[in-house]
Amino acid sequence: MMVENARHKQKLATLYNYDEKSADMTESIQSRKDKIEKLTKQIEDKEEAADELEKKITGVERMKKPTAPVYKAAKGDAVDEMLARYINQTNCKVPITRLQGGYYLFGTKKIYTTIVNGKLVVRVGGGYMMITEFIDTYAESELHKLEKMDPEEIARLHGNGHGI
Hints:
By secondary structure, this protein is of the alpha+beta class. The protein has two domains: 65 residues; 95 residues, Metal Transport, Frataxin, Chain A. 62% of the residues lie in helices and 18% in strands. The protein has four helices and six strands, in the order ααβββββααβ. It has a six-stranded antiparallel beta sheet, sandwiched between helices.
């Protein structure tokens, strides 16, 4: 009877040991499932971020591509015709959209242009700056601003006007 009792205890100990191992394995499996879920979420987040960056890159590439003359002047508007000639000759990469009455959107900046002594000038502060000097001064900073923007936002800014 004692031998049988000892075998019974040994079997119970073995079963108890299996229960502990089973519980440990279940815990380990759950921990790994949680880790897989966390990593899957991180992958999804990174893929979403990559998609957003790809959209921005595509928008910037579209802005930077040299193209044939694309700015079409409003007929009868001497300022717009002069601006179109300048933009098409220099292949300015900053989008310019005609608003009205000499006002334009240059990238994200609203500007006023006019003709003074036969020259196209842009209003800056209390005076005027030649269009060539204006673009040399402000084009790079406007391109940097645009690179940080969503392409859809740029399209909204420049989509309703006349220009490039």
